[in-house]
Every structure is written in structure tokens, then in C-alpha cells.
């Protein structure tokens, strides 16, 4: 089974406080890593550190260590989504979906189909700024339905989603790992779906 991510002895400090230290883990194809911890524990910092958005005090991160081709272009093969939905308030739902796809390098995406998939048909012409938080989240999440990246790193993907939205997202996660992908996610809520390879990591006041 191939390893998609291998991290060793990561350490991070913010404002003089150690968030985590000596943190090591690896992620195999088909695995889900659920990162837990209280508000301010350092979950987002860890995810942002993995993709190079926050500087670490120590440690090494190897993407796709057993696949040289993927490793060299790991950014192309890794999907990172931050905890904000990042939709453009003045663009319609449909325009947002199309724009996101374009920014991902896709020109031939069926934005209508994607809106239907995430349950937003009928709202396509409304400016995204007029949609609810959960509806905006659904727009942002359409990326997961065409992403070819094997590794997904998702900060609070369930935020603002209702029960059906959470179920829909977990179904998509299950497809992704069945296809040999892997997922790292943060969430304050327990998963209602139990993947076979579920790893849990709690960041707790600087201790693991
Ligand atoms: N840019 C920054 N500069 C200084 N400190 C920061 C910065 N961003 C975050 N922090 C601090 O780092 C700590 C960890 O923040 P982080 O956002 O990683 O927590 P979290 O576990 O994701 O929390 P939550 O569950 O509330 O989203 C917090 O104490 C926060 O105040």
C-alpha cells in the first residue's frame, strides 16, 4: 500500500506557546486522519503547516515518498481547503462553481451538474452573498467532485452543513478513499461514517 504523506517530528509555536511538538504520522492510501482538539489547539495551524502556509519550528514533511513523480509536483496532487468557504459574494452560485473549476485548471466542467449534486439547483442565479452559510459551503465543496488529487487536506469541511449535507460529503469521502485517495480533516464532530482505516489525532494543549 502506498504512503501519501510522511511527517516526522513536527513542532509549531505561536505567540511563544507550543501548539505541538515531536509530532509524527504517516498516511496510507485509503486512510482518513481525523484531527481533533479544542478551539485554539492548533488544528488549522497543523494543516496550514503541512501545505507550507505556516512556518514550522522543526520537522520534515514528505509528500508521496514512494512516488517520485508525484512527490516532485506534490502541490498539483494535493487539494487543500481552508475553513472559510471562499466564495465570491457578488458572483452567482453558478458563476462561483465555474470560476472555482477554472482556477483548478478545468475548462470543461458541468457547473449545472455540480450544483445539482450538492443540492443547489434552483439557486444558481442568486449572488452567493445572499445564500446561507451552508449553501455557500456546498458551493465551495463542489471542488471535491472533480478533484483528481489523491490527497485531500480539509479544514472543518462539515462546518455549516446540515445532516444531509454531512451525509453527502461523507459519501464523497468514501468514494475518494475507495479509489485509493487519502484524507486529512479537522472536525469538532465525530464522523458518522466509519472508514476502515480511520486514524485519530488529538492536539491537546501542546501535547498529543
Ligand atoms: N497568524 C497568527 N499569529 C499568531 N497566532 C496565531 C495566528 N493564527 C493562529 N494563531 C494562534 O495559534 C493557536 C492555534 O490556532 P488554530 O487556528 O490553529 O487553532 P484550531 O485548533 O484550528 O482552533 P479552532 O477549533 O478554533 O478552529 C491559537 O491560539 C491562535 O490564537
From TrEMBL:
Molecular function as annotated in GO: ATP binding; ATP hydrolysis activity; transmembrane transporter activity
Pfam family, any one: ABC_tran
Superkingdom of the organism of origin: Bacteria
Keyword set, alphabetical order: ATP-binding, Cytochrome c-type biogenesis, Membrane, Nucleotide-binding, Translocase, Transport
Gene3D superfamilies on file: P-loop containing nucleotide triphosphate hydrolases (3.40.50.300)
Segments forming a coiled coil: none
Any one GO BP annotation for this protein: cytochrome complex assembly
Residues annotated as domain ABC transporter: 5-208
Keyword Membrane set for record: yes
InterPro entries: AAA+_ATPase, ABC_transporter-like_ATP-bd, ABC_transptr_haem_export_CcmA, P-loop_NTPase
NCBIfam families, per database record: ccmA, PRK13538.1
Name of the protein in question: Heme ABC transporter ATP-binding protein CcmA
